[in-house]
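Usage

Read records sequentially. Each one opens with the input sequence:
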Amino acid sequence: MGNYLAFLQQLKDPNEGRSLEDILSFPERIRSLMVRNKLKIRDQHDFTQIWGSLDIIRGIEYHHNNFLAHLQALAAKDQLSDDSMLDHETIAYLHRVGQWYFFGRSLKLLASCPKINELYLFRRKSIGHRSIDCSENDPPFEQIWQAGCFSRRTFAGKLSPNFDPTKDMSEDMDLILTPKRYQSKNMFIQYQILSNGAHATFVPQNDHLVITKEMEEAYIRLFNSRS
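and closes with the structure output:
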């Protein structure tokens, strides 16, 4: 009991005086939020659960940064090449999000986390284990879909409202069929999974900000609920 109290007492906020909105690093923002509310941590178990969730947050940011770095490296190549590292980083990222899902559920924080709730389907049907190896009453065709959900990724995006196929098709094909697609501002890598009517879509470049916002707001609700 004394060890955690001593640790809390010596904790200093490296961003003291700054608003949370001004702290660009997501893990550092959550760390500062925890330090500013350290007196609301109740006991050793509470400390281990809440402070320990920082490792999950750091892992999420780590894998997202790796994903973006891989995109940049792939875009710099002369021709399309193996890009399976994107899938490996995505799987690791969603595994960490799944860990946070259970953290949030244990503290009743998930009611306002729709994207995190949605993405848990990936962990339940493909990442934690493949449903094709340990089915939970999913029909065979869904097991096949779930098992290949990361190798079946697509590029999601929207055509410009002024798109003219007679003029713009060559430019469009040059984007899709060359390494330029990895740095496109109009289309992004997308993963999908389904199970018994439930459906989840993950677009890493877009959804990371949605996920981290849900997590940050959940921590704020947690601390605000404690006197």
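Summary fields computed downstream for this record:
- The mean pLDDT is 90.
- The chain has one domain: 25-224.
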